[in-house]
């Protein structure tokens, strides 16, 4: 198993989207990229800790490649808006890739550069840096979309990301249990 850590707005939304993929064993919501030790949700939302809301994905590289995860990541959020995704505004909602190895760092940098070169995006602002520390978010944030499918925020923001993954990445979709 390997890990990947991404921030692309509210972690509820990106967690739900990545859980749709075959080869993804688990997705954990949390915080990374800040300067406060073991922050909580309210602290992160204040913008004072420097953390981003992120998900840490545990995946089987024999079933899904890191590049496939990057493709999904760049598809389900807007990597050209600084500190904002949809209605969520603040540095905690920034676009970020936190690499677990030099290989991931190089792959993510090359992937973003290629998207720019191909004209898929103009002005990618995604931070790409080594992961320092990942802090797991409070339990009530874990699997939030699954637990709260009728929540208005989830219906308006998470559900469309899930549908996009189901449609665009059907060949990588996890089998229903």
UniProtKB/TrEMBL annotation:
The keyword Oxidoreductase applies. Residues 4-154 form the Peptide methionine sulphoxide reductase MsrA domain. Gene3D superfamilies: Peptide methionine sulphoxide reductase MsrA. Keywords: Oxidoreductase. The active site is at 10. Its EC number is 1.8.4.11. It holds the Pfam family PMSR. InterPro entries: Met_Sox_Rdtase_MsrA_dom, Met_Sox_Rdtase_MsrA_sf. It comes from the Archaea. GO terms for molecular function: L-methionine:thioredoxin-disulfide S-oxidoreductase activity; peptide-methionine (S)-S-oxide reductase activity. It catalyses: [thioredoxin]-disulfide + L-methionine + H2O = L-methionine (S)-S-oxide + [thioredoxin]-dithiol; L-methionyl-[protein] + [thioredoxin]-disulfide + H2O = L-methionyl-(S)-S-oxide-[protein] + [thioredoxin]-dithiol. Has an important function as a repair enzyme for proteins that have been inactivated by oxidation. Catalyzes the reversible oxidation-reduction of methionine sulfoxide in proteins to methionine. Belongs to the MsrA Met sulfoxide reductase family. This is Peptide methionine sulfoxide reductase MsrA. It comes from Natrinema hispanicum.
